[in-house]
Amino acid sequence: MDVPSAARQTMAKLHRAPEPEVLKPLLERARTDSEARARIVGRARELIRDLREAHDRGWVNQFLQEYQLSTTEGVALMSLAEAYLRVPDAVTADALIADKLGEGAWRAHAGKSNSTLVNSATWGLVMTRALVGEAEGGPLRRLLARAGEPFVRQGVGAAMRMMGEVFVMGRTIDEAMKRMTRRENRGFTASFDMLGEAARTKADAERFYEAYHRAIVAVGRNPEAGHSVSVKLSALHPRYEVTQYDRCVPELVDLLAQLASEAARYNIALTVDAEEDNRLGMSLDVIEAVAKRPEIRGWDRFGMVIQAYNKRARAVVAWADALGRPLNVRLVKGAYWDTEIKRAQVEGLDEYPVYTRKSATDVSYLACARDLLDAKNLTPAFASHNALTVATILEWAGDRRDFEFQRLHGMGEGLYERLVREHGYQCRIYAPVGGHKDLLAYLVRRLLENGANTSFVHQLADESTTEAELLEDPVEYVESVGGTRHPRIPLPVDIMSNWRNSRGIDLDDRATLLDTAAAIEAVPVDNRGVDAVHADPLHATGRAKRALEAWRTPDNEVHEAITRAQAAFPTWDARSIEERATILERYADLLEEHRIELMALCVKEAFKSIPDAIGEVREAADFCRYYAYQARSDLKPRILPGPTGEHNELRMEGRGTWATVSPWNFPLAIFVGQNVAALVTGNTVVAKPAPQTPLIAERAVALAHRAGVPSDAFILVPGGAEVGAELVSDTRIAGVAFTGSTGTAKRIAHTLLVDEDRPIIPFIAETGGINCMIVDSTALPEQVVADVLTSGFRSAGQRCSAMRMLVVQEEVADSMLEMIAGAMALLRVGDPGDPATDVGPVIDRPAYDKLMGYRETQRARWLATAKVPDEGLFVPPTLIGLDSIEDLDKEWFGPIVHVATWQKGKLEETIDRINAKKFGLTMGLHSRIARRTDVMEKRAKIGNIYVNRSMIGAIVGSQPFGGEGLSGTGPKAGGPNYLPRFCSERAISIDTTSAGGNATLLSLDEGGI
What we know:
Elements: H1 3-15, H2 19-30, H3 34-57, H4 59-66, H5 72-83, H6 90-101, H7 116-133, H8 139-143, H9 148-167, H10 173-179, E1 189-194, H11 202-220, E2 228-231, H12 233-236, H13 245-266, E3 269-272, H14 280-291, E4 302-307, H15 313-322, E5 327-332, H16 337-346, H17 358-374, E6 378-383, H18 387-397, E7 404-408, H19 417-421, E8 426-433, H20 440-451, H21 456-461, H22 467-470, H23 474-480, H24 510-522, H25 543-550, H26 557-574, H27 577-593, H28 595-606, H29 610-634, E9 638-640, E10 646-654, E11 657-661, H30 669-680, E12 684-688, H31 694-707, E13 714-716, H32 721-729, E14 735-739, H33 742-754, E15 763-766, E16 772-775, H34 781-793, E17 805-809, H35 810-824, H36 845-857, E18 862-865, E19 878-881, E20 896-902, H37 907-915, E21 919-920, E22 922-926, H38 930-939, E23 944-947, E24 964-965, E25 983-991
Parallel strand pairs: 1-2, 1-8, 2-3, 3-4, 4-5, 5-6, 6-7, 7-8, 11-12, 11-14, 12-13, 14-15, 16-17, 16-22, 17-20, 19-20, 22-23
Antiparallel strand pairs: 9-10, 10-25, 18-19, 21-24
Helix pairs in contact: 1-15, 2-17, 3-18, 5-6, 5-20, 6-7, 6-9, 11-13, 13-14, 15-17, 17-18, 17-23, 24-28, 27-29, 27-31, 28-29, 28-31, 29-30, 34-35, 37-38
């Protein structure tokens, strides 16, 4: 095996390995002896003095120190900077300013800084607070009533542009290169990066490519300056995703090779930036392919970035060296730490891809640095603002000068000036280039990264941090804690505290994704009339009918099933809560054990994509474990207060036999969730799945029986509407849980009430909705685009929670829709078993015909659509324009999103107009104005509100799901109030005086006979 391949195998082992195991060899590599340690500390003290002197001279540093991200005011300022310059209208700009500055304790900062400029700025903030935060009748408010708000806008705009100049080298590459000639940058070189978010559309990627190309040409015209260009692959391709590997990697290789060839022509350096962990494998493939291209042979200025917080970092260094050609390597600590931690938790991964302690990252950095210094083919660049890290590298390098340091523009002034100008070391400034409006998300990310409480920059500026703490040896600290994970960052499986989080599959790892897809494909399906869509998608038309015939419930079986379930009820209800909860946990384990088989059924019977299929299994397991926990916690008998001599107790008991009717769009998760809720509360169940998905239901029931649920306590009765009608109309049924259409829910409700002799029983219904996402002009467009595609088109729009209407503030509607349309054009519609598929088919021919018929009637209103295969039940994802919010009065259950606009300043009215539709399932809001979230919380008559995220994917126990009005009865599934609805509450009161009263009174020394 060649060395690069061996290094890739090592990376695969390290990716999800436990932290102590990964750190063990790194500790020895990062260690220094006592004599060297003494020299390092001495040099670090000198660097710290230089840093503090520079900090005291720079008003920006002092301003950021005064308003740290650990303060309310600091967060408010950074939030304002993130959004302000993209807001086109005065009304929203004023609302944003009032939101961010109106409640801060700005006066507490007045006069605190050593900088006159900082104090002046603080008094400006005090004045602004008085203007935007005072009551209507305040004297300053009255004084500036007419001129005040424009004045504040101008001041805030100027401040934001000033911050832009601090952190962005220039708005154009020419401006940035000119700025590098200023006195403060003397002796430094720059690596220019074209600033902005990742490309979302083909047009975005083309603009970024042209910007990079212009930068290479501009830098190449003056090669003696020594500047270079950095490239983000996510900016060059709008689908830089593992699932799109087959198209994005070859295209990126060609694009990067073209840029590299141009850089080689001018003999300037070109470096590929590092991004999120899930893109590392693709990035290495692109870099390796370009490095081997004949057109850049002999050019030794190609480079890459390695992030030390990644567990694979040291193996990546070995891989880069083993390529056998000169390569520049920039070593950084890492820029996406919080994203990586959250993603691993959300996806239920076994381990984190990054270290959970800052000290562990420092150890990794030092180990990688030593490897880089020893490498044969690599020229290292050490990017750090940490004086101890820099001093250590200087000690290890000795008299060498064949490497460079790097720092961020606007950060770390003072650390390198003496090293560059007096000692001849090289230092490069990572210099963002772009319009100030484009810097904002980047700015906030960098400030968060460098403003974190554990960062050296923050600790240096904190006067309470001692020099000993700044100079603490990370190797010694990591050894003192045994290399263990941070105690406040549990493994993803443990984040729910009281129940075990479900295990996911890392589908962002290409090998795992392909293996999973192959395993799903290999699962044989007992198709008794069920066609796999990828085999013949067009013939899936008759699948439901044939499946129903194969699975038809024989005459009288519904009646017999209820009879059996009723007979089993007393024994099952008599079992302890602990027994039933343990069975549910065993059931969850079995669901996960058989997840590939269950995923295959979801893909082949319900046309679920692979990510949606694993989501089904995980949610089903989560329901089991959560309801087991809730049963133990909430269903035990409760002793209630009362007078002495009286015993009062409340008991939660099963009601009898429940009927559950579940849908095809969540054929495993909702089916399992409804049924285990009924079972753990002591009820028996007769369950009718959707006629389109009987195989999934049959397997789920079989596994429940294997887990310990008695066969007569959980009985499956497949069939269509007639089976459901027979089931819910049986007067022996003690409760009904239903998920489906509003019309069917109303018919069931009528059935339950029409018989006057029938007991009044609980009816839990979760139905659909006209779910709307409201977007204002402060929203980040790239984030909106991603969440619109997810909310509207994932699962082919066949989720109860899916977005049916997008309501965009009219000032930004055109630009927002242009970006959404561009992103839609890149969606892949096709076989759900293909890992590259974004949108699969709809469930059956009736659904297809209904959606396509409606879509055709709206052809004149189409705003955007996507391509689909010629054959199959594929409804093209479509945006349909509306004249007003009121034009949509019906739920269209598929990949169709309607678009309306709203006027600035009319958020309350817009919410009221949505409320008037009487549906109440989900609503979304994209805004950087926190007060608008408060408005939506108070005004929206909605079961689930989602802010600055997608509107789908509720997590059991974290986001209880269910609607109101035409969208359901409640209580919410996966929430703390769900199980009691399945119970009968029985209160017992016993007069104990007849049996001797309260004996504890006799022990009270308060007198007596």
